[in-house]
Structure formats: C-alpha cells, structure tokens
Amino acid sequence: MIPGGFSTEEFSARVARAQTQMNDAGLGALLLTTESDVRYFTGYLTRFWESPSRPWFLVVPAQGKPVAVIPSIGAALMRRTWIDDVRTWAAPEPEDDGVSLLADTLREIGGPVGVPSGYETLLRMPLADFERVKTQSGAEFMGDSGIVAALRAVKSKAEIAQIAESCSIAGRAFSRVAEIAYEGAPLSRVFRDFQRLLLEEGADWVPYLAGGAGQDGYEDVISPASDTPLVPGDVLMLDTGAVRNGYFCDYDRNYAVGRASAATSSAHARLIEATQAGLDAARPGARACDVWRAMANVAGSGEETGRLGHGLGMQLTEGLSITAQDQSVLEAGMVITLEPGTDVILGRMMVHEENIVISDGAAQALSPLAEKEIPII
Amino acid sequence: MIPGGFSTEEFSARVARAQTQMNDAGLGALLLTTESDVRYFTGYLTRFWESPSRPWFLVVPAQGKPVAVIPSIGAALMRRTWIDDVRTWAAPEPEDDGVSLLADTLREIGGPVGVPSGYETLLRMPLADFERVKTQSGAEFMGDSGIVAALRAVKSKAEIAQIAESCSIAGRAFSRVAEIAYEGAPLSRVFRDFQRLLLEEGADWVPYLAGGAGQDGYEDVISPASDTPLVPGDVLMLDTGAVRNGYFCDYDRNYAVGRASAATSSAHARLIEATQAGLDAARPGARACDVWRAMANVAGSGEETGRLGHGLGMQLTEGLSITAQDQSVLEAGMVITLEPGTDVILGRMMVHEENIVISDGAAQALSPLAEKEIPII
After folding, report:
1. Mean pLDDT value across residues A272-297
2. Nearest CB to A220: which of B77, B205, B318?
C-alpha cells in the first residue's frame, strides 16, 4: 500500500532507531510537521502538501507506534499506511486548527517534546499556534538533537533503489535533449519541453528545473528561463529534481549548441575530472570537506566557492554540504550530489552534477556519469 | 526585468500599503521568510526555493524600501528586481546561516518586528536560528497582525491577469484530455500525460496535480495515482495547480469514460448548478460563509462538509476558506476558487472547481466555466 515498495518493517525499524536515540537524548516524543519528516516515519505520500492551508502533525513516542494528528481530508490515505492511530480534525478551523487535538496528544504521550530546530529545518505550522500547543500541552519542548536529520541522511536499500530509479528517468530524458534543444529554440520552451520529457520517461512530477544558456557558459543557475533563442556557441545546462515515488534525483547536463569553443570543451573536461576526483574521495570515513577539496583542486575553486554538492533524498537538498567547512563524516548509504563549478570566461561559468551513493569501498554512481567531451546538439 | 509584467510602481505601492498598516499596528519592520511573501514585495521569482537548505529573508521597514538578506547565490537575480539593498552571506554556513547579518539589519532598522504568525503562515527558517536572531537583534518580536495576508488577498490587475493566463493554459490542456485519457489508460499515466499537456500549453511548471477515477466517482482526491486502467463507467477527475510567471490556477474537470450513469450525470449537473450559485453569491460585501451556504444548499452539503473553495494566487491555496464558519468579507479583487462536492453513490464522490475574481457587481470567471453535461471521453 505504500508507494515505492517500502515495507512495514522498514518503517518500524526507522522508528526503533529514532526511539533508541530519543532515549539517549531524554526525549518523550518527537513532533514532526514537514512532508519529508512525516513521510519518513509513515510512508504517507501525497502532493496535497502543496496547499499551505492545513498543518499536519506526526508524534513519535518514546515507545510504540507514531500517532498521526491530521486534517480529516487525509485520514483515509493515512490509514492505508502502517499507522493505526490517526486523529483528525475538520481543518481548516483557524480558531483551533488542530491545536487542542495535538496538545491533548502530546500531554497523553508525555514530553519532553523534541522538535527539529537545527540547520535546514522549519516548523510547518503557524508560530502562534505552536505557542498555544506549548502552553496547552504543558510539555517541555526542546530541539530534537538532530536525530531525524541524522537518521534520514543514511538511506536504506529501498530508498537508494528509488533514487536510482529517479536518476534513470532523468538519464533517459537527458539522452533526448537534442529533440527539444537546438539553434533557435527559446530557452523557456526548452525548460518546458525538458519537463515534458521527464514526465514521458516516468517522473511522477518535476518539482525542480533550473539551468541556463549563454556563449561559453551562463551567468547564474537560478534565474527563470528567458525567451531568448539558443544560438551557436551557447552552452545549455539543464539541472533537474525529478521525483518518482517521492524520491528525487538532482543532477545536470551541459550541451554545446552547434559547436563548442576550446574554453568550453576544456571547462567541461575539467568538471568531469573534478567529479571523478570527488567520486574517488567519497568513501566511508572521509569528510564532506575532503570531497570538496578533491573537487576544488581539479576545478580550481577557491575557499570562497559555494558548496559543490549536498545530500539528496526525499528533498532536493538535505543533510551535509560539500563545502570547505563541512566536517560531516561520510557513511555507507548516504546519497549525495557532486556538483563542481568552474569559470569558463569572465562572468560565465559552467557547473556539472552527478548523484552517488557512499558504499563500502568505492562510491557507486546513481546517475549515468557524463563523458568528458561535451555533447554537441 | 520582473517576470509577469509587474512594474516597479506596483511593488512600491504594495510596500506603501504595508507601511500604512505597520504604522497603525506600531511595527518598525516586517520580517518575511517564505517564497510568496518575499516575492510579493520584491518580484523575486526562482524555483530555487525547492531547496530547503538556505533561508531567505526580506525586511520591510516602516519607511523606505525593503532590504533583502539572502544567500549570495541569489544576489544577482535579486538585484535585477527593484530592490537596491541586497545583503548576502555565503550560505550554507550552518554555524551562522545569516543569523548575524539578519540580526544586524533588524537592529539597524529597528523594531518591533512583525512576523507572520497566524493562520496558514509558517516561519521558513530553523527555530533555533530564529531564537538567536531574537536575542542578537535585541528587537521586540510580535505577529504581523495579519497585514501581509490581508494585502495579498486582494489582487492587483496585473496579478489577476497572471492568474487568468494560468487558467487559460489549464483550459487548453483540459480540452485535450481525450488525447490522453481513455479506456485502458492507467491513471498514473494519465496524471503524467496531463502534466505534459499543461507544459505544452504554456505552464512554466506544474507544482500540483491531483485527481481520482472510479465507477460513479472517486473515494478521495489526495491519493497518488494508481496504475489501474480506466474502464467504462469510470469518472475521471483531474485537478491542477499549474503555474505561469509564479501565479497558480487551481481548478478541475470531470470526465466520464465511455458512458455516464444517471447518478453521475445528475451529480455533475448538481455541481455545476452549485458552482453557479456560488458565483452568483460571490459579490463584494458577501461573506465566505454566504458563498458556502449558496453552494451547499444546491450540492446538499451538511455543516460537517469541508471547505468548498479558498483564496488563490501565488499559492495554490491562500487566504479565506469557503466554509460554514468563515466570516471573511469578499472584496473586489479577491481571487477565489468555488469547489463544491457531492456524494454520487455510497463511498463515491465528485468535486468540481472553478476560479473567479470578485468584482464590482457580478464575479468574473477566470477559468472557462464547465458545461452542465459531463463530457464523455
């Protein structure tokens, strides 16, 4: 019943691991409010989270199964997961939008209540309601000691298989880019058409698409696409977060339109070499900063360079950052991106990205590694 | 430079309106952290928000232009909006992820600092960092008195034009559903193909797609699509939030596969009548609950029924709810959905949805209103 072939045992094992750490941290409960945290412990998968109107809560007790405290519109779907205790209210009820029901549940289960509060987290409920829950429950609240993020960082076999499937889907779409991108095609249409290819190849949806195009590289990688047509000598980059069964891939490909200059060809080759250096360095026991340095040395990145990769899973980005500062130690089962960048000419850059899983021994590529030579379209 | 044809004057007018209300509420600054709130005052449009790694901040002072406090990766794009004062840090820096820079900015601008904290809001930054900002800035923090939500609820002409464009795109895609949905087509493929049609018709992206299919209706409207093929007598519903230039449409269409039973035909006609009753009731001065009652009376909905519509704009759902309880008063310029539902047979329902803008006199449809007769595909 849970999309992606996740077993009930997988979820109970996740909860058991959390409970061991909650015990060490002296927590009576975890309060989770985000799509990915709730799904991690339940398997509850729906695009309905796109609506910000309704809060959703999952309470993981120190013993026993999690309790869902959710809008009644989600009850039928939540009951098809492995969760038995599903408590609902008729959201939206702005006067008491789950506050009393959640406070009662927390009082019953008992605190202290750990709430993910550190790097990369957010509380997906109104602040004013959170204050009410704190008061009404009478429980003590604190951070979750990073328990949820640490658990989620190391993927199970089933999770790795899902990410690999998303990567395969994107790989098939990338291999078809020449169908949609050529001299004269407006970049905005290329963006639309590439999302279409991803759907045709099996993506459930395409939450993220970025990219850029320009002579010998692009100026930035986060702007919306303009309607400017591609011209010979342009470098086109497409970077996608496509989702299958709730798991992301996140990698990119560069293409030269018509012809590649020497600067473009050499930059592309350098990026592929840098990626390979990152792959070689990404072994259990290495730190994120070690992987950063391996890639930065080849790509010629200075300390001021932003991150060259990050964790990946139910979110487009999650967990560690491949930066000069990040001391996180790699473990088998972590899925990360390698994303070196380099300047091609003044004001024009190129970035390249692949997805890998840390394994005992050498890391395994999940995305089909690109060739050194930039493809010409 | 700002996608969607929004002028600098539009943004300065939004800020001026906010500042008038901030003055009444005794606020020295607003602190905004979400994509739609930041975009409302800046025009800053990027899909990069899909990555939860980096917080983004906008400070609206009681006088003068807003100040952006953002990751350096977004600086170039933010400087292409009308914002001049763009302060950056090299995020992600988990040790001080914008905290000091934001605290300094707030101390300089002065409080009290209003933070959206009520219904439907969230704070998009780690709770622990928020506590640090409160301490380091020395400012007083409070809610924003609903100022931002109230401003955003009433759309400008340019915003209404954008939503109308998204509605047109979806309308063209809905008119092509027979190309992709027919006896034997698995629902999961129909979901993918419909997103493809939306992209072909001009959507920039498709953040939301829901729906369902079954004999004489569906069981719920939030589950992921199964691989079950459509069979004659099924009712197929597709409900989309497609986005163009950052503005959503949110409406659905029902189709009968091969043939429609009497119960299905009559339920569809009832939903169209209910929608029309809602449209007639949705005039300036009417309350959301009045519109609810007008539709509920026709659709046969009881008080326990969930909401039958909601506000719409930069979010799939925002602002008022069409419920029996919501006393919000409609104003010209509000864009809302009308979304009645009805039971067809035991355990099977149908829902219908259209998008309208409240106007002086009768409301105007933004989506192409469906016919009473359910289309057969």
Report:
1. 98
2. B77
